[in-house]
Structure formats: C-alpha cells, structure tokens
Amino acid sequence: KINPFCDIPILCSRNCGCGWNYVEHRSEIPLDCRAFNKVATAPIDLLKKDLEIALGEFLMIVEEFSYINFAISPDANCERWRWDAHAMGLDELLRPLGAPKGPPLRSGHWFSRHFEHVSVKVNIETEETQFIWKVD
Predict the structure, then answer these.
(1) What spatial distance separates the first Cα and last Cα of the chain, rounded to whole Å?
(2) pLDDT(115) > 60
(3) Are the beta carbons of 29 and 21 closer than 8 angstroms?
(4) Chain-centre distance of CA 133, in angstroms?
(5) HEC profile for the chain?
C-alpha cells in the first residue's frame, strides 16, 4: 500500500533517498516520494504521519527484544533527517511505552493495544492511527 512495488505492505517501507532529487522528470519519482523531493529541511508533518502509521502497526506485533527503526531512506549520504530518526525531531520515539497489558484486540478493521503509558488504535483499511498517552 505504501510502496507500489511491494506486495507485503507491513514489511516494506518508503525509500525516498536523496537520489530522487536528481531525476529530470517529476513523473519518474515514485508517488509516495514526491513530497520528499528537493526538500532541504525535514517535512515534519508528513514524517509524523508516516511515523504514526509505522509505529502503530509495529506496536500491534511488538514483543520482548523487538526493535523499530524509522527512516525515510537508509542512505547516510542524504540529509540527516532522512535516515536519523532523532534528527527528525519526532517526540513519539522518545516517550516510554511501558509493558504491554495484553495482546492486540481486533474489531472490524481496527486493532488496538494497551501499554502502561499509551493506548494505540490502528485502522488497517484507512491507516488512521491514534495514540492516547497517559498523563502521570
């Protein structure tokens, strides 16, 4: 769904390296990379949306010793925000989750899972994702 060249969406990701900045015709750039083309600073709103979807899906399946790496491109020759999640300034990656309170629950297209510090809901059809952070 995110990458038109990938048959298993949850295992695939957007790879919008800086190489797309040098393509002559915009039509040659994959549709899901166009917002990252010739961008000097991180497009925070788009990154947050992508992170919410990726993190929400990951939290549905996370187990002990599971890790997530969020990057727009694995190419470290690009701008730092494309491959270094901390340089993206996304606070969601720095907040504690706590232990899961149980397995994910399913209701139609919605999955939800509760952790000590956050509850997460993901609609697998629309990719709508919600985080409800608990206030201490």
Answers:
(1) 37
(2) yes
(3) no
(4) 18
(5) CCCCCCCCHHHCCCCCCHHHHHCCCHHHCCHHHHHHCCCCCCCHHHHHHHHHHHHHHHHHHCCCCCCCCCCCCCCCCCCHHHHCHHHHCCHHHCCCCCCECCCCEEECCEEEEEECCEEEEEECCCCCEEEEECCC
Q: Which amino acid is at 28?
A: E
Per-residue pLDDT reduced to its tens digit, 53-81 = 888 999 999 988 888 877 776 666 667 76
- pLDDT (tens digit per residue) in 1-46: 344 434 444 434 456 666 666 666 667 777 667 666 666 666 777 7
Six token digits for residue 72: 């727009």
Tokens of 87: 């340089």
CB 87 within 8 A of CB 81: yes
13, 17, 21, 27: CA torsion to nearest 10: -20
User: Tokens 């790496």 appear where?
Assistant: 69
- In whole angstroms, how far apart are CA 21 and each of 14, 40, 49? 15, 10, 22
The residue written with tokens 């297209």 in the block is 109
